[in-house]
Fold Response regulatory domain-containing protein.
Amino acid sequence: MKTIKNMTLIDDDDIFVFLTKKAIESTSLVELIRVFGNGLDAINFLKEHREDLNALPEIILLDLSMPIMDGWQFLDQFTTLAPKIDKKITIYICSSSISPSDVELAKKNNLVSDYIIKPITKEKLIDLLKNIIEEI
């Protein structure tokens, strides 16, 4: 069975990260999960490893509200970085914000595949992972 080699969670909510990792690990659909507590650490990792395709994630779950660099700032930085990366990285915003303006802004960004409102169910997470696996 095909799997996702690398997945990245960019979120500062320890409980969400813990529960999401446990749910993903129980599926055996993802080989490696990297976690960053803010967008700056994540964007620096992507910049440092942009030529190492094995280190780059196939999927990113991105929170919007974080310290240091929030999700919107991460997306701004990623927009300039993405053309320099020779790998498709699928980004899902995973936020507790139900603000229509946040949802609309996310839908306008062609790098964002979907906007998922927390909490995310295990079933929704499994469906999301299976859809990514079908694409790769």
Summary: The longest helix spans residues 122-135. Strands lie at 4-10, 30-36, 59-62, 90-95, 112-117. The mean pLDDT is 93.
